[in-house]
């Protein structure tokens, strides 16, 4: 589904991401983790062409991303940033309707098929009863679900999420991640997301990509990636790794800063 080959990304003269290569299969959830400033969000922005790459290439469903127009790209991929904004008088239903724009010519209005997809996206995300609410009146968790509904209305094959749980309390963080897992399972939607919480990444990901200083340190299944040695070398903290009988995902308990 997503093949990233030898991406090099600079900000000015400074190399931020170095020789980044990654292959993600259709239907996988992959989380990118790493310390602040390690290049996680930069990678997502480069994949979605929000920022240019110095070199390298990205293929989505076998097609070279640079050969696609932004409208074509938006039909197969959607990215939601850490914080998204829109005018205060936009309703949830109107916001979700914007997800149909990549499928329309500039002069075309939404038709019955588009409204049917909007209804479907609202139902998938549990936002149907909020459709007439202004986005500005929603809680952080509700607003995040509304933006995900807009993304679904694009009918993408690939969803990129940059820290989707930022600014949310614990319960709403879990609500959003459970929604992502549901959509992945039911729609076979491929998801790549940047997360900070190691336990969230462990629980909700098929694979983990660990980045530090712009380099991939390891890529694999949570049970293979999360070791005390790896976490110490990347984050500089000592941890305990625990496996519970009812879960294959490791639980990470941070003890202290490493000496």
From TrEMBL:
Single Gene Ontology MF annotation: ATP hydrolysis activity
Main location: membrane
UniProt-annotated location(s): Cell membrane
Domain ABC transporter: 2-238
Keywords: ATP-binding, Cell membrane, Ion transport, Iron, Iron transport, Membrane, Nucleotide-binding, Transport
Biological process, per Gene Ontology: iron ion transport
SMART domains: AAA (SM00382)
Entry's Gene Ontology cellular component terms: plasma membrane
CDD domains: ABC_Iron-Siderophores_B12_Hemin
Record keyword Membrane present: yes
Membrane topology value: Peripheral membrane protein
SUPFAM superfamilies with a match to the protein in the record: P-loop containing nucleoside triphosphate hydrolases (SSF52540)
Superkingdom of source: Bacteria
InterPro entries: AAA+_ATPase (IPR003593), ABC_transporter-like_ATP-bd (IPR003439), ABC_transporter-like_CS (IPR017871), P-loop_NTPase (IPR027417), Siderophore_ABC-ATPase (IPR051535)
Record's protein name: Iron ABC transporter ATP-binding protein
Native species: Brevibacillus parabrevis
């Amino acid at each position: 589904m997503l093949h990233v080959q030898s991406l090099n990304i600079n900000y000015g003269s400074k190399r931020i991401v170095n020789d980044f290569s990654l292959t993600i299969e259709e239907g996988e959830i992959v989380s990118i983790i790493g310390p602040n400033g390690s290049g996680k969000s930069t990678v997502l922005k480069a994949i979605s062409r929000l920022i240019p790459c110095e070199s390298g290439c990205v293929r989505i469903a076998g097609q070279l991303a640079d050969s696609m127009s932004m409208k074509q790209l938006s039909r197969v991929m959607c990215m939601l940033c850490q914080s998204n904004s829109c005018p205060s008088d936009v309703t949830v239903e109107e916001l979700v309707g914007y997800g149909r724009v990549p499928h329309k010519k500039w002069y075309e209005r939404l038709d019955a098929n588009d409204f049917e997809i909007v209804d479907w996206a609202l139902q998938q995300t549990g936002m149907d009863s909020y459709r007439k609410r202004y986005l500005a009146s929603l809680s952080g968790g509700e607003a995040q679900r509304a933006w995900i509904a807009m993304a679904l209305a694009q009918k993408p094959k690939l969803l990129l999420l940059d820290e989707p749980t930022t600014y949310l309390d614990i319960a709403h963080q879990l609500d959003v991640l459970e929604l992502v897992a549901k959509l992945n399972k039911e729609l076979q939607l491929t998801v790549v997301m940047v997360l900070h919480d190691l336990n969230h990444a462990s629980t909700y990901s098929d694979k983990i990509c660990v980045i530090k200083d712009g380099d991939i340190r390891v890529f694999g299944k949570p049970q293979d990636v999360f070791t005390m040695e790896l976490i110490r070398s990347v984050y500089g903290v000592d941890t305990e790794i625990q496996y519970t009988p009812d879960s294959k995902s490791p639980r990470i308990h941070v003890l202290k800063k490493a000496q």
